User: Fold this.
Amino acid sequence: MTRYELIKSAESILRICDTAGIVPSEARYLAVYEDWQRLTKEGHKKVWILAYLAQQYNISEATVKRIARKMAKRVKA
Assistant:
């Protein structure tokens, strides 16, 4: 498959992502956000979740916070 074929096959979703300001590299943070949701649902305090995920994924607490905020935003299609 060529780059063209891949882009063409996902054209509509890529256009929505572009309009919403979503870059493909954000996909690497899906696991962080899934853990954020799970830990929040379990009732853990946000400060603890930030520290725990920062340590687990070797990223800063500010990055964890930014990921959680970005991933929770509604997208207008």
About this structure: The CA atoms of residues 46 and 65 lie 9 Å apart. The mean pLDDT is 95. Residues 30-41 form the longest helix (12 residues).
